[in-house]
UniProtKB/TrEMBL annotation:
The keyword Electron transport does not apply. The keyword Translocase does not apply. SUPFAM superfamilies: beta-carbonic anhydrase, cab, EF-hand, Ubiquitin-like. It catalyses: hydrogencarbonate + H(+) = CO2 + H2O. Keywords: Lyase, Metal-binding, Zinc. This is carbonic anhydrase. Belongs to the beta-class carbonic anhydrase family. It comes from Tetraparma gracilis. It holds the Pfam family Pro_CA. Transmembrane segments: none annotated. Its EC number is 4.2.1.1. Its cofactor is Zn(2+). Residues 355-418 form the Ubiquitin-like domain. It is an enzyme of class 4 (lyase).
């Protein structure tokens, strides 16, 4: 049959035989086309359905659980009941920076938010949600912005290359470099310049926190949270607390960023019929603080505090100082800011006949009141409601001393409270909270 065909047709059919149409990669070729070894099959492209062996991860988890239970049988039960972290950390997503581990903290102590180069942006709903929940619901006392040297995000932002979608995020770091260009431009060593930009980026994110309305609201109402800047050195494992003069920085931009009234958070003076307000003028207190805080840190140590208080009388003993710290709700403090110093001075300079009443408030700092012996419990409730911005009416709270509920009409003298008293505030449910206007 083949011989009856023309020579051209015969050649075409030979060339089109299946054995000649196989890819040259699958068989040797006289033309030298490379081939795969016979024993090596072609690999399939990656698929999202490819199985992953996580046996080692699950095994590690079981070992960790067993170790934790052995060390503390009730560990997981307590964690499961609730969370009450002391701190909120805003850090970088870098896998080499394990926040809890490098800070020596356990689970439940640190509320964490992470992103590229530890940014605090007022347009980022993720960080705003974390701030609101951490500050307003969990009541964290301190916020740490944690950067780290050798940060890929910082290095990328100092280059002259468009990195696509992430460039919109890195733009914020470029803005930090622009703000501090005068300082950065004189640093000749590229690595030192990078390290300084890491620190300045942390500083600017702290400033962004101070300018945030959520943070300002909490600070104006309860004097917390405090804000701290820190940097982690991956090469040494050491944490560095940045000595940033926030007081100086914020004073410069106060009129731009302030949206809340911070004057509300001061020691309250009821000054009733039985006691004068007496004591020291606020300006005198402020001047004494500034004289001791000559480097404008915004805080003074306990040792410096004793010297400063000595300007208003005899220098207090350690025992008297500890008592005063408890009185203003700061029993574990190792340093004092201007607001706390004001409170402490007023503790030490009470006029004769005054009673210092410190009310401990759930989820908040203790609030000190200077009262007269004939001021009533009801007067304190009114002042406490005002101090908290009216969020809780006097009828919605009870005041207790040594576990006993104090009657509204009782005076401090009736209650046997003289000189100093610690009182607990408790929220009570009243029928008017459930009343519905226009109801049936």
């Amino acid at each position: 049959m083949l011989s009856s065909l023309s020579p051209l047709t015969q050649l075409s059919r030979r060339l089109l035989r299946p054995s000649l149409l196989r890819p040259c990669l699958l068989r040797p070729s006289p033309l030298g086309c490379p081939s795969l070894p016979p024993s090596r099959p072609l690999s399939s492209p990656p698929s999202i359905w490819d199985p992953l062996d996580i046996t080692h991860i699950l095994s590690n988890n079981r070992e960790w659980v067993a170790r934790k239970k052995k060390e503390d049988p009730g560990y997981f039960t307590r964690l499961n009941s609730s969370q009450k972290p002391k701190y909120l950390l805003i850090g970088c997503s870098d896998s080499r920076v394990g926040a809890q581990e490098i800070m020596g903290l356990d689970q439940g102590e640190l509320f964490i938010h992470r992103n590229i180069a530890n940014q605090v942006l007022n347009s980022d709903l993720s960080v705003l949600s974390v701030l609101y929940y951490g500050v307003m619901e969990l009541g964290v006392e301190d916020i740490f912005v944690l950067g780290h040297y050798n940060c890929g995000g910082i290095r990328a932002a100092t280059g002259s290359k468009d990195l696509g979608m992430i460039e919109h995020w890195l733009r914020n770091i470029r803005d930090v470099a622009r703000l501090h260009n005068d300082e950065l431009s004189v640093i000749k060593d590229p690595e030192e310049r990078h390290r300084r930009l890491v620190e300045l980026n942390v500083q600017e994110q702290c400033v962004n926190l101070f300018g945030n309305a959520i943070i300002q609201q909490a600070q104006s109402e309860r004097g917390r949270p405090r804000v701290h800047g820190m940097v982690y050195d991956i090469g040494t494992g050491e944490l560095k607390h940045l000595d940033i003069d926030f007081k100086k920085v914020l004073k410069k931009y106060r009129d731009i960023y302030a949206v809340h009234d911070f004057s509300k958070h001061r020691p309250k003076e009821i000054g009733g019929k039985g006691g004068g307000k007496g004591g020291v003028e606020a300006e005198e207190i402020r001047r004494a603080f500034d004289e001791v805080d000559d480097s404008s840190r915004g805080w003074i140590t306990k040792g410096e505090l004793q010297v400063a208080l000595g300007r208003f009388g005899d220098e207090p003993s350690d025992e008297r100082l500890d008592e005063a710290f408890r009185a203003v709700g700061m029993p574990d403090a190792d340093r004092v800011d201007a607001r706390a110093f004001d409170s402490l001075v007023r503790v030490f300079t009470k006029a004769e006949g005054e009673v210092l009443v410190v009310v401990s408030v759930p989820g908040d700092n203790a609030i000190p009141f200077k009262c007269g012996g004939t001021d009533t419990v009801g007067d304190i409730k009114e002042a406490l409601s005002e101090a908290r911005g009216g969020t809780l009416k006097p009828s919605q709270m009870e005041l207790l001393h040594d576990g006993k509920v104090l009657r509204d009409e009782a005076t401090l003298e009736d209650c046997g409270l003289e000189t100093f008293a610690e009182i607990e505030q408790r929220v009570v449910i009243t029928p008017d909270q459930f009343s519905v206007k226009g109801g049936r």
